[in-house]
Specification:
By secondary structure, this protein is an alpha/beta fold. The chain is built from eight helices and nine strands. β6 and β7 form a beta hairpin.
Length: 222
């Protein structure tokens, strides 16, 4: 994977990327993510990792998290995040001391990690003992079936993002090495959790019916 190419792509995307789930897939992804959040977020020190324009950080603030920091490697995404605390950072090498957060959330970003083992180690490092990691990823089944991660910029040019294919077993193995324990996982499937009507949705659902497109995972630091 070329991480810098992805940063450049996200910089281009930032202008049209709002701090909310702006399409049916992202709304289904967010529902799966929130279903795995702790029942009580109020009072927690939280990190929105690879926050983009800050949609999850904003939800954490709304739910009463005591301290919320959003980090991203894309300067343009971060500049557009309406957050009080924003940090430009590589998710593989965070500028935080050990055990700083009780909750780390990350939406659709772990697939950009060049090393899943390294990513899990860094998540475990910044979590307090007993802290939770909740993240989503594009499902490898979707990529293998031919779906791509792409967007169209303001000049109507299409850009495809690079990402790794990590199965749930891959996440679990890497997590165990880092001292993280899998608590729960969910899948978002076409025609089930992803079921909104949109232009062309009849054909979309016929073609991809039942395909897993998002994986949502919750882990806890031992």
């Amino acid at each position: 994977m070329n991480a810098l190419a992805n940063v450049a792509a996200y910089d281009l995307w930032a202008e049209s990327y709002p701090p909310l789930p702006h399409n049916p897939l992202m709304r289904a992804e967010q529902a799966a993510m929130l279903a795995l959040w702790p029942d009580e977020v109020s009072g927690l020190r939280a990190l929105d990792l690879a926050c983009g324009t800050g949609r999850y950080a904003l939800l954490l603030e709304e739910r009463g998290a005591t301290s919320v920091i959003g980090t991203d490697r894309s300067p343009e995404m971060l500049r557009r995040a309406p957050l009080a605390r924003r940090v430009h950072a590589d998710m593989m090498d965070l500028p935080f001391a050990d055990a700083q957060f009780e909750l780390v959330v990350s939406g659709l970003a772990v697939g950009h990690a060049p090393s899943l083992d390294g990513w899990m180690r860094e998540m475990a490092r910044v979590l307090v003992p007993g802290g939770q990691l909740v993240f989503t990823d594009f499902h490898p089944d979707a990529a293998r079936a031919g779906m791509t991660r792409s967007f169209t910029d303001g000049e109507k040019r299409k850009h495809e993002l690079l990402h790794g294919l990590y199965n749930l077993a891959d996440h679990q193995t890497a997590a165990a090495k880092a001292g993280l324990v899998l608590e729960q996982a969910r899948e978002v499937r076409v025609g089930r959790e992803l079921n909104e009507t949109f232009t062309g949705s009849d054909e979309f659902y016929r073609h991809w019916q039942g395909l897993a497109v998002v994986l949502a995972v919750r882990m806890r630091k031992a």
